[in-house]
Automatic annotation (TrEMBL):
Included range, full protein: 83 to 542 of 550
UniProt cofactor(s): Zn(2+)
Organism name: Hirondellea gigas
Protein name: Guanine deaminase
Similarity comment: Belongs to the metallo-dependent hydrolases superfamily. ATZ/TRZ family.
Residue stretches making up the Amidohydrolase-related domain: 72-446
Keywords: Hydrolase, Metal-binding, Zinc
E.C. no: 3.5.4.3
One Gene Ontology cellular component annotation held by this UniProt entry: cytosol
Keyword GTP-binding: no
């Protein structure tokens, strides 16, 4: 009774699609048909074309998922900044500001990743947790340990998540027991890690040069790491201007630099494949440097609120042409779920708008949830310089997608009979959680499926 698929390489979806484009932060398209061949989006058409497409491609109903009225398809979520080895602290230890938090809680926790057995346990859980929450692409900091960082890359590769991942570099202003042995060891192990990850076959995992931040990296290390990134054409990720004490300290450590951003710019770390996390306390000149270099910002509202780092003015960054995506920044943030980042992003922007209004400091348009949706998908893809491959449902992009069901088993969302499709999407963004994410696809591969045959084919 099992029907043979006429095109085993094809998967076709009929129903509602939601995605961001350059002109529309959240476009909802009903009665659509989207076809995937070998992991890539082959066509996106009106459902009126279905018979024609069946004839042209030779697929049948066996290839089609007819989405129900409670379901829609959206691009996978992109987390532009998180720390996999900090998950043992997740939801804990948020009572100190950044620099004290690092010394007291974070460095001791990361030091434990000299133990590769522990590393494998933690990293497997982290990657599974992010995928369960619909994060199809993530940029990870690991630790200074080469072996454990290789394990994180292996886990990502075997689980099938799209990722960039870096061995952390730091030589000073961190405990004796948790720092790289020397500059030459730092460079040698970083290069070995890059070569190791580039050696994976059919891989969605990319290596990333990862100087922790300017206070932990002397100038020669920053410059040499930049050269390594240029040599291997790989990404760079770091932290920038997260707190005011940090920014003051950086000016003391690098007296030749007029600004924090110049420290990274003069050492050649800033490019189109560079991601800077936080970027809260920037001057307009620094924003201009980021825009000119094509460097993206990972906005981490959950972390910025938890560690009381400040409110990042995303509207101004966007107005000045800086790319901005969302980062969970666990365990500075506590939620691995990008929906939490999306909501906090809107609330931080609302807070800035309220402060401006109270100070009569002029009109300020807060970010809408639609703009935050774009930051969580296409915007994040741009920050990671992956928007040629992922971020929305453009033809020829890879199919990284989530099947959402607002009435999935255990759903926390109440749906009412008058609800239209836009209301269902909005309710998911504000009230949904991982129970509503019933399928997760990366590069066309179904990594997670909690649909039952009953609800997946209800509308067929
Ligand atoms: N700055 C340097 N290291 C870190 C870190 O681990 N987390 C955060 N939030 N900021 C940092
Ligand atoms: Fe961080």
């Amino acid at each position: 009774q099992m029907k043979l698929k006429s095109r085993p390489d094809m998967e076709v979806f009929v129903g509602t699609l939601v995605h961001a484009t350059d002109s529309d932060p959240m476009l909802i398209m009903q009665d659509m048909v989207l076809g995937v061949i070998n992991g890539k989006i082959e066509f996106v058409e009106s459902v009126e074309e279905l018979q024609q497409l069946k004839a042209e491609y030779g697929f049948t109903d066996a290839n089609i998922l007819y989405m129900g009225s409670s379901q829609f398809l959206m691009p996978g979520l992109v987390d532009t900044h998180t720390h996999a080895p900090q998950f043992p602290n997740n939801g804990l230890a948020l009572d100190l500001p950044l620099l004290e938090w690092l010394q007291t809680y974070t460095f001791p926790t990361e030091a434990n990743f000299s133990d590769t057995v522990f590393a494998r346990e933690v990293y497997s859980k982290v990657v599974d947790r992010l995928l369960r929450n619909g994060t199809t692409t993530a940029a990870y900091f690991a630790t200074i340990h080469l072996d454990a960082t290789k394990i994180l890359a292996e886990v990502l590769h075997s689980r099938g998540q799209r990722a960039i991942v870096g061995k952390v570099n730091m030589l000073r202003n961190c405990p004796e027991y948790y720092r790289e042995a020397s500059l030459s060891v730092s460079l040698r192990e970083t290069e070995e890690f890059i070569r190791y990850v580039k050696g994976f076959e059919n891989s969605l995992v990319l290596p990333c040069v990862t100087p922790r931040f300017a206070p932990t990296c002397p100038e020669d290390q920053l410059g040499e790491l930049a050269q390594l990134a240029i040599k291997f054409d790989c990404h760079v990720q770091t932290h920038l201007c997260e707190t005011q004490p940090e920014a003051t300290w950086v000016k003391e450590l690098f007296p030749w630099a007029k600004t924090y951003t110049e420290v990274y710019d003069f050492t050649r770390l800033l490019g189109a494949k560079t991601i800077v996390a936080h970027a809260i306390w920037l001057s307009p000149q620094e924003m201009t440097i980021l825009a000119e270099r094509g460097t993206g910002v990972a906005h981490c509202p959950s972390s910025n609120l938890s560690l009381r780092s400040g409110h990042c003015n995303v509207r101004e960054l966007l107005n000045r042409g800086v790319k901005v995506g969302l980062g969970s920044d666990c365990s500075g943030g506590y939620s691995p779920c990008m929906l939490d980042s999306l909501r906090k992003c809107v609330h931080v922007s609302n807070t800035i708008a309220m402060e401006r209004a109270a100070q009569q400091a002029g009109d300020y348009t807060p970010l809408s949830h639609k703009e935050a949706f774009k930051m969580a998908t296409l915007g994040g893809a741009k920050v990671l310089s992956m928007d040629d491959k992922i971020g929305n449902f453009e033809i020829d992009k890879e199919f990284d997608a989530l099947l959402i069901d607002v009435q999935a088993k255990g759903s926390p969302i109440d749906v009412f009979s008058q609800d239209n499709v836009e209301m269902k999407v909005d309710r998911f963004l504000y009230n949904g959680d991982d129970r509503n994410i019933v399928r997760v696809y990366v590069a066309g591969k179904r990594l997670l499926d909690s649909t039952t045959s009953a609800n997946a084919t209800a509308a067929a």
